[in-house]
Amino acid sequence: MQDYLKGLNEPQREAATHINGPLMIVAGAGSGKTKVLTTRIAHLMANGIDAFNILALTFTNKAAAEMKERVEKILGNNEARNLYIGTFHSVFARILRAEAPRIGYPNNFTIYDTDDSRSVIKTVVNELNLDDKLYKPNVVHNRISSAKNALVGPDEYANDYYLQQEDMRANRPALAQVYKAYQVRCFKNGAMDFDDLLFKMYELLRDFPEVLHKYQHKFKYILIDEYQDTNPVQYQITKLLAAVNENICVVGDDAQSIYSFRGATIENILQFQQDYDDVKVIKLEQNYRSTQSILNVANEVIKNNKGQLPKSLWTENAHGEKIKLVRTMTDNDEGKYVADTIQEQKLRNHYHNKHFAILYRTNAQSRSYEESLRRMGIAYRIFGGISFYQRKEIKDFISYLRVIVNTRDEEALKRIINYPIRGIGKTSVEKIVIFANDQNITFWDVLTRASEFGFKAGTLEAIQNFVTMIRYFQSMLEQKNAYDVAVQVGKHTNFVKELFNDKSTEGLARYENVQELLNSIKEFTESPDNEDGEVGDKTLGAYLQQITLLTDADEKDENADVVKLMTIHAAKGLEFPVVFVGGLEETLFPNAMSINTREELEEERRLFYVAVTRAEKHLFLTYANARYRFGSLTQNEPSRFLDELPETFLDRTYAGGGARNQTSNMGSAFARMHRGFEGNTQFSNASRQAPKSKTSALPTGLTSKPPQTVQHIPSKDFVPSDTTNLQEGQKVEHQKFGYGLVTKLEGSAHNPIATVKFELNGEKKIMLNYAKLRIVE
DNA sequence: TACCAGGAGGTTTTT
DNA sequence: CCTCCTGGTA
């Protein structure tokens, strides 16, 4: 037996050594799926299959990179760089780059990110004289995007009775026209959006038999990761590609399907066995990642979903600690709790920053964690959110590069034509657009023929200088690589100097960002092979093609010793020794947008399942009674998912003494008591000051402490003391319970517990690691 | 044409 | 709380 098969369990080995014919691997969370996939690729190659004939599709660049790296390690040579491993989007972009002229696009077509798409939609909506209050760019974009993912083109859209009815009802009868106009404009701009990369790829294969034939024979073996997250376009494309050889291997877990908003459908994985004859199905059910407690909690929760593929995930790992359920007053307290606990865990269990992950439902939640981590001096990094490439200065700079490579790109042109300021203002731009539309020529064409359109002398000169400059950059493309061109752009446009002269903090940051961008371009030109493993293509075009498809999460320094913050979506496929899942509150998680149908709610639950199964050793689930949202305090019920957790594996010590923390029927009692504050009642900004002011009438639901507690107003300069050497008999002040005397000290050194007799609230046990106590004397 | 102040409106998740 | 857009002024 080959070495690389050692250490695989029976089903894993069976999957890895399967060579010909369709194969479906149902892989539970943490069951060694990546290991199986990489081993299988290595095994194919060890059996004489050429790397050039293997295609592996993933959902993130990171997963692709990891896969390639691991195959390389197993094989111990450079053959792996000939594999076609990448995301659906990047692999198709690369193929489209080669084949684009067939469908009327330039090889150097631009890839529009979401912001670009929305901006095009905005223009198109205006040009059609439609109300942009009704045709909101993001709404329209979502609609168009879903259509494309479902293989519905503009014409099918216009002719679909059901879709038309929907748009009528939503007061957007012209949506089909917008869709059409949007496509026309993108085409005119020589640009494809994210969804086009899939849709056009499908059209290419559908309409050009010779192209289909070529790729069917190139990709004799196809592997698809996270198959449960594929949407109909992706499904059709892979079906076409695999039709001849039928050597298609899909890996997925229906319990982890969390991308239906992007058009993904579990149907694809359920359907797979019908699509091909003799599908071999292998289940990976042994989990190697998590403790039994964690796994049991996960299994118990997912049971509440209907229609799962039957499987039972088990582990030989130790029981481990119970899952900690933690309730705090506000989101800020939640942040503090997490930061404190990280500090404590680092000391107690010798963890490093990099062993922690903080996961949340929405990007906006990162703020409170950030603040606390920063205050504690704990290094962290946020993955996702606004990506580096979406920053204004970076987009502006890249727009220059985009124009140089593809002058049809109107979006990019509009961004840079007056940045840095050169006297071509809004009015001139509007004129240019009108001329372009009238004559049915591109924006750039108007610029090159500016003298024909009667601009004012000053404006004309500015336009001509701009054109000359861009042409100068283009002329450099032939001899110079991407980096050299970019440097020239920075110098020649005064772009870099402009930022350099801005000495404000933000200006400095912008300057540094552009420098970082230049560095990354340099790195690209100097790296021996690009991300697809293809040697040699160091042109600006090649650089731009990959840049739009990069995400923040793809950035390298894997081993940087930082706490990782990200959404649960972004965390899929990852694992961490200690995981915090925050914001377990109704309207947040499950999100208010996703509780209207059973399907939506089940997807939220799968998301929760994904979150829980990221943890290896320790799992903390936290929720806050109230959090700041839109600048005002919002009150939420604990998440319904918390009611689904099995008691046996839970530690509620930290869940505080109120709401739904002992038994689930307490919850309804609490709810009954506070009728009127159920759901998410919003309080005005004014009530934010409430706790400080004696006169303000505090809404009952807001305090959320046990009803018998007498409210204490901490002194204005309340600062928690260091309680390491706290002695019995000392007088202390607690933020909520007021003044009291320490009557007893117990607990371990890392988790000391003080018993305090409070003047107003009686005797309480206080965990010194978490509570804020000020020593009075 | 450029810049600033003031106001409205927006939070789901991502390639 | 934030960002984006508008409309007024220099």
Task: Annotate the secondary structure layout.
Elements: H1 10-16, E1 23-27, H2 33-46, E2 54-58, H3 61-75, E3 84-87, H4 88-99, E4 110-112, H5 114-127, H6 137-149, H7 154-159, H8 161-169, H9 175-188, E5 191-193, H10 194-207, H11 209-218, E6 221-224, H12 232-242, E7 248-252, H13 267-275, E8 280-284, E9 286-287, H14 292-302, E10 314-315, E11 323-330, H15 331-349, E12 356-360, H16 366-376, E13 380-382, H17 392-405, H18 410-416, H19 426-439, H20 443-448, H21 457-476, H22 482-492, H23 495-501, H24 505-526, H25 540-547, E14 563-567, H26 568-571, E15 576-581, H27 598-612, E16 615-629, E17 632-635, H28 640-643, E18 650-651, H29 664-673, H30 700-703, E19 731-734, E20 738-747, E21 752-758, E22 762-767, E23 773-775
Parallel strand pairs: 1-7, 1-8, 2-3, 2-6, 4-5, 6-7, 9-10, 11-16, 11-18, 12-14, 12-15, 13-14, 15-16
Antiparallel strand pairs: 16-17, 19-20, 19-23, 20-21, 21-22
Helix pairs in contact: 1-2, 2-3, 4-10, 5-6, 5-9, 10-11, 10-12, 14-27, 15-16, 17-18, 17-21, 22-24, 23-24
The chain binds a DNA duplex (15 and 10 nucleotides) through helix 4, helix 10, helix 19 and helix 26.
Overall description:
By secondary structure, the protein is an alpha/beta fold. It has five domains: 10-101 and 200-286, P-loop containing nucleotide triphosphate hydrolases (Rossmann fold, 3-Layer(aba) Sandwich), CATH 3.40.50; 111-189, Arc Repressor Mutant, subunit A (Orthogonal Bundle); 323-387 and 562-654, Rossmann fold, CATH 3.40.50.300; 389-542, Orthogonal Bundle (PCRA, domain 4); 710-776, Thrombin, subunit H (Beta Barrel). The strands form five sheets. Strands 11, 12, 13, 14, 15, 16, 17 and 18 form an eight-stranded mixed β-sheet that branches. Helix 17 (392-405) packs across helix 21. The longest helix is centred in the middle third of the chain and has 22 residues, at 505-526. The protein starts with 9 loop residues before the first helix and ends with a strand. 41% of the residues are buried. It binds a DNA duplex (15 and 10 nucleotides) through helix 4, helix 10, helix 19 and helix 26.
